[in-house]
Amino acid sequence: MKQIHLLLPVALLLVAVCGALTACTSKDGEPEMFISKYPQDCSWVGQEAPKNVADLDERLAAYAVIDIDSDLSHLTPTELQVLEILVAAADVMHELFWEQACPCHSELTRLVAALPADRKSLVERYFDINVGPWDRRLHWEPFLGSWPHPEGANYYPLDMTTAERDRIAGGEGRLADLFTMVRRDEGGQLIALPYSVYFAEPLGRAAALLREAATLTENASLRRFLESRATAFLTDDYFESDMLWMDLDSPVEVTIGPYETYEDGLFGFKAAFEAFVTVADPAESARLDKFKKELPWLESSLPIPDAYKNPNRGTESPIRVVDEVYSAGDTRAGIQTIAFNLPNDERVREVKGSKKVMLRNVMNAKFQQILVPIARELVAAEQVMDLSAESFFLHTLFHEISHGLGPGRIQIAGRQTEVRLELKDTYSTIEEAKADAMGEWAIFKLQSKGYFSERIFAEQAATYLAGLFRSVRFGIAEDHGQANAIQFNYLWEKGAITFDEGSGRFAIDVVVFPEAIEALVREICTLQAEGNYKAATAMIARYAVMPPVLDAALDRLGRIPVDIKPQFKPVGTS
Ligand code: ZN
User: Fold this and answer.
1) All domains of the chain, ordered by start, with CATH?
2) Distance, CA 183 to ligand 1 centroid (Å)?
3) Residue 533 carries which DSSP code?
4) How far is the CA of 434 from the centre of ligand 1 (A)?
5) 358 CA → ligand 1 middle, Å
6) Ligand 1 centroid to 477 CA: how many Å?
7) Using CB atoms within 10 A of its CB, is residue 61 exposed (0-12), middle (13-18) or buried (19+)?
8) In this predicted structure, what is the pLDDT of residue 409?
9) How far, in Å, from the CA of 223 to the mean position of ligand 1?
10) Per the omega criterion (within 30 degrees of 0), is the bond before 150 cis?
11) Which tops the pLDDT comparison, 36 or 45?
12) How many A from CA of 485 to the centre of ligand 1?
């Protein structure tokens, strides 16, 4: 073991406690805690019971605790066994993520455990949701103690100098690598430790679990992925297994490994471990295939001149609809994911595109816990009746599908370019507004082809309206909030959204709505096709604003949960 000479004496003791020979077994069913051979200085944690913020119970209430169920009845006993093993592997990802996200988590956990009984349970639950003492929803403000959140989480030494930061930013050695942790060697110099080295013991456990699942499964694509990913855990080379993940056609679909880099708030260099253990819904997949066949027709039907249409788009990105059985690591912290798009490796994307995975049961849970209560507060009583989980799912699904429709690569005065490059900082806001509006437009188009009943207009209208409030609720400082404000104000101007002073509720005019949506799609696609930055800026300036009537309405949503805290049912093979 080449890295031995870097070990500090104290660290050696810790290795003995939790080394490769004495696997870290959990006691009392408590989650396992990774203990690093390369510890940070944790003297800042101290020994005293830390204070917590006074409104902790309110902050906890913002996350509605909800059981996440999935239908496993179509799985064979072997597939259930595979699921159980994958859940165990996912738990290892959670252990790794704690180490990446929260410096000195063992010391902090000890302090939390020693808190007086009246505070302990509250703090423990919020500590668990946030994976550490910092509030992920409130800009990393500490809710326990007063330690400032380290921007680089636990990926880097906590005491870096400006010169050292510059060296990392400059990409020296492997310091900026996606799959390394940065620590100090015994001489105090920065070193990059590959995940396979830093996390050798737990990644070895995870690899063994994936191999065990691979030997059991009867699905060849899943077996190949699991074997390849097990190897990647030990070599840090994820390319081949990312490619194989794109080809999964198993009822058990798993996403496991280091993926997103948001947790590294310092540079965005380091990938965080996470896992989604899911089961595909065969009926839903079949329905999706039917929608996909209509993509060329939808593209050709867009309400823009033919020259602006893009006949080659729409097939680049496969979509899977699944139910989440278990989640862990990065994705389990804070706000819950309802859809994701992976892998991030551009080499894979060039060859195979990327895959969108929609987590249907998580979406349903958010619908029940958040969207319905918002609608009950703000949407006209007769339209609340039209809300359905199915229409929220369709809205989200066709939002994702619409990102692949309309202008992408464009030509301006003979010059080949892309919408993204021409719209620059306005691109995300405009593209998100497009995906929402075009999603509705596409559903209405497909209705005319017999895919949905007449009721779809009323159902989509109600869901769409409640969805607008859900998204602008977080403010119009970021892209999604702005995109939704654009839609609200545009539809308001067209008379598609109305407000009743007496009841204080909003409604959608179901007759005007489809026309207004089509007009918005036309306007956005035209400015995109023309790469018209000026028009994009003007649209944002005019529509991405918070009118007083909306601002006052949002104030009434204070006690409605902001997100969910999922509770997963054990898989149980018996
Ligand atoms: Zn989007």
Assistant:
1) 1-280+312-370+561-574 (3.30.540.30), 379-543 (no CATH)
2) 37
3) H
4) 9
5) 12
6) 16
7) middle
8) 85
9) 32
10) no
11) 45
12) 15
Rounded-to-integer distance, Cα 45 and Cα 107, Å: 7
Ligand 1 centroid to residue 447 C-alpha, Å: 22
Q: What three-state secondary structure class fits 419?
A: helix
List, as one string, the DSSP characters of 444-462.
HHHHHTTSS-TTHHHHHHH
Q: Is there a contact between 479 and 429 (Cβ–Cβ < 8 Å)? A: yes
> CA 434 to CA 519: how far, in whole Å?
11
Beta bridge partners of 190: 184
Give counts: helices (H), strands (E), the chain. 24, 15
- HSE-CB of 188 using CA atoms within 13 angstroms: 4
Three-state SS at 517: helix
CA distance 299 to 240: 33
Q: How far is the CA of 52 from the centre of ligand 1 (A)?
A: 36
Cα-based angle 357, 330, 272 (whole degrees, multiple of 5) = 100
CA 467 to centroid of ligand 1, rounded, Å: 13
- Rounded to whole angstroms, the Cα distance separating 326 from 128 reads 16
* Torsion sign, CA atoms 139, 140, 143, 146: negative
- What residues have their beta carbon closer than 5 A to ion ligand 1? 435
The predicted-structure confidence for 392-424, as pLDDT tens digits, reads as follows 999 999 998 898 899 988 999 999 988 988 999
Q: Which tokens go with 218?
A: 């009867």
Q: Do 63 and 566 touch, CB atoms closer than 8 A?
A: no
How far lies 270's CA from each of 1, 193, 229, 273, 341, in Å? 24, 12, 18, 10, 18
Q: How far is the CA of 479 from the centre of ligand 1 (A)?
A: 10
Q: Measured at the alpha carbon of residue 398, what is the angle toward residues 391 and 435, in degrees to the nearest 5? A: 120
Q: What phi, psi does 418 have (nearest 5°)?
A: -130, 150
Task: With both helix axes pointing from N to C terminus, report the angle between 512-529 and 479-493 in degrees, rounded to the nearest 10.
Answer: 130
Q: What is the pTM of this model?
A: 0.86
Q: Are 153 and 103 within 8 A, CB to CB?
A: yes
* Tokens linked to 438: 């075009």
Split at pLDDT 50, 70, 90, the class of 8 is: very low
- Give me ligand 1 centre to Cα 475, in Å: 17
Measured in Å, residue 530 CA sits from the centre of ligand 1 at: 21
State in Å: Cα 412 to ligand 1 middle: 25
Query: Distance of CA 399 to CAs 394, 406, 473, 558, Å?
Result: 8, 12, 19, 27
Alpha-carbon distance 560 to 545, whole Å?
23
Ligand 1 geometric centre to CA of 399 (Å): 6
Q: What is the pLDDT of residues 253-283, one digit of tens each?
A: 999 999 999 899 999 999 999 999 999 987 8
Q: How far apart are CA 507 and CA 5, in angstroms?
A: 69
Give the 3-state DSSP-derived string for 71-84, with helices as H, strands as E and coil as C.
Answer: CCCCCCHHHHHHHH
E strands, 147-198, are 180-184, 190-194
